[in-house]
Design a protein that fits this description.
356 residues, 9 helices, alpha/beta, eight-stranded mixed β-sheet
Amino acid sequence: MSTSEGDADLSIEVDVDASYSSVDSGLTDMEFVDLYALKEFTVPLLTYSPCASLGSESCDRLNRRSRNTNGRTVAGIMPTGKVVSCSLAMLHMRDKEANVLFAWRSSAVYPIPNDEEENDRLDMKHHIVLLMLDGRLHLSPLPPAPRILDIGTGTGIWAIEMADMLPNAQVIGTDLSPIQPTWVPPNCYFEVDDAESTWVREPNSFDFVHVRFMFAGIRDYPKLVRQAMKALKPGGYIELMDHDLFSMCKDGTFKQDSPWQTFCTKIAEAGAILGLNFLVSKDFKKILEDAGYEDVNEVVMNCPMGPWPKDVRLKQIGLFQREQVLQGLSAIGVGLLTRGLGWTVDEVELFLMEVS
């Protein structure tokens, strides 16, 4: 499991001489849960990202121009070589609460906006995971030339880096929205798809299904993993990763009635009203076992939120984590609290001033 080259392009300076502690700062950890499980041995979709490539991009692949469709029809190539395209209606987004939201499918309700700032935050979360996993993109064992499905691929950064790392693999990323770069490795494809709908994928066709940070988009994880099992080959793996919504503090200095914990409580309440379980990561292992997966491995990692750790790597993780949380407060809060709890945008913004 080699280190991703894209990870080296992002760096941040930290003061290694500064002394931080959780007692001084009252800052906390967030718990990340990563599970991978084995499947026991026993309708073409729309593709909109060209397969031809002049070579992989590093962090420049995140160039905003590559995500801007400018209202054009975007051509693509299926893994079979069939050329297809997305209609303008598929690419159409609608503006709500000053942010861009999905509009191509009326049944697809995703409470978090799909604007440039949110896409930057998604890429930052990817970088945080790379730091936490020592540069690894996955924990599951894979064959030499795997066929990989990335559910909720977002900006496509994970799928692109997997395709770079495994040139003999075929990596397919799916998402509700076509925001991925247009220049990608020749073995990487993107599809517009709703993972909550009934899958039309060929049974026993994938070696690896990857699902990360999707608790705001998946309402029925048992259904998702059952459908993934049908799509997986015997001996294939699924990997789920998400974080606990609530923060924790080992030394007891973090107050449970703090504005941050209140924010998390309100977000959980709003999510529940909208049919979303933001605490589902604690149930991942049982969900996989109930679906019939074998060899279910659970890895729980503590992610600092802030630069309080003395360890340089953890300090860097904490800096990125704090930044992505602060950057996402408005995007997450406005969408969920207005729709779930009926707050006005002004009420949410006033509340978020206390949280930040």
